[in-house]
Amino acid sequence: MDIVSYSYADEAHTRLNNLSAGNDYNPVASGTLTNGDQVVLNTDGTVEVLAGSQSSQSEDVGSEVVFNLSSTQGISSTFDSTNNKVIVAYRDEGNSSYGTAIVGTVSGNSISFGSPTVFNTSYTVESSLVYDSTNNKVILLYRDGGNSFYGTAIVGTVSGNSISFGSPTVFNTATTFYISSTFDSANNKVIVAYKDIGNSSYGTAVVGTVSGTSISFGSEVVFNTANTSYISSVYDTSNNKVIVAYKDGGNSDYGTAVVGAVSGTSISFESPTVFNTATTVYISSTFDSANNKVIVAYNDIGNSSYGTAVVGTVSGTSISFGSEVVFNTANTSYISSVYDTSNNKVIVAYKDGGNSDYGTAVVGAVSGTSISFESPTVFKSGNPYGSATVYDTSNNKAVIVYQDIGNSSYGTAVVYQPAGVTITSNADKFIGYANEDASDTENVSALISGKVVSGLTGLTQGVEYYLDYDGTLVTSATPYTTSPIGIALSATELLLKGAGDAVSL
Fold first, then answer.
1. pLDDT tens-digit series, residues 208-253
2. Which helix H or strand E contains 262, and what residues bound it?
3. CA distance 201 to 248
4. What is the domain extent for residue 435?
């Protein structure tokens, strides 16, 4: 589900919190109000009736759009949430295998692209893209064939339909494989995980700091003292931790994950946790911010190479996993996963060896420590190679990018919209209840923080209540509720609290 402006921390609440709890409040009504109406505070200081609605959206797969008319490999993608753009990086076989990036704009069920920009004028093997939401920059990590295949980073700035880059910075002076990156929004750092060929192929990580159009790195930290591959890193915004999933060559190629904590320009790791006791490949991880869970999708060689997923829960510096769930009972490869913030679902794209190697997407919903999947949808009736999936939070669409083997290996993208429900609400601006009738532009008495609302029904004394998108009082939080708005004094009375205020009987 999508919620419009559901932050519970905006200008309106800042103004409200400047009022003393329990004081009378007589704002101007915007529109007609009736005694007992739930009211929300507008940024201009007026109040209006709380309103919420929902509408259904059907599943939709857009038409394929080619962004590179030559063989395209080493694809990665990210979403620039400031400019509402999709950025794709790739190796352009039609232009001397140079590293190239291009900016895409989603509109409806399609995507259009600007002109490509070369970021590395030499053979570029693989890439990883991540968006720095603090500095509004795109960071592109790659293996530079023109410089001994060193791990290299470059900072990009999106403007309109194009992207420009600063100067490159080396983060690993050795051949670098399986580059994966994520952004730590609490510490404003870029974390890069990779296989360091120059150090016994150990799993290694490094912390990057963006400044302007450049990036600097701290010291390298080993998270696995063995051959490490199929690395996938993700950031847990609830626990402010980095989770790195990988195939551990030092432990029978088991699927393994480790939790890292950033401090300054370094990162420390604790003991690893195995999530699959068999050879594990094509690992892709994402974070479910509604349920505060890490989801890892992979190919389970120990179970006929089936597509499998597992839910991880971070606690302190460790992670535990629920039971494995199969999402595709066939050989599953080129897995890429992303979190759908609109429907609070996980989207997994993959190549289905059980269905002519078609490009396929499946949607999963987390519940507790498990995940269940819906029926799969084919997005490409052919053979996609090396897919990358990104979620456009502005348009509430996923964009799946891949090399189209059936069309001269051209770089291709398709927009995918899962079925779901869209919610529109102003409940995040809730301040209290109207205490009288009022016409438009009239002052109205409002019951706010510290006041008792009476005349309600069905409340349970001593229980905190949340406000759902449509104004319904509920006793448990969902991704669509506000913070607790008050505590029941009786079956008919509710003691209101302000944003962030504590209440107790």
1. 999 999 999 999 999 999 999 999 999 999 999 999 999 999 999 9
2. strand 254-263
3. 11
4. 11-52+426-496
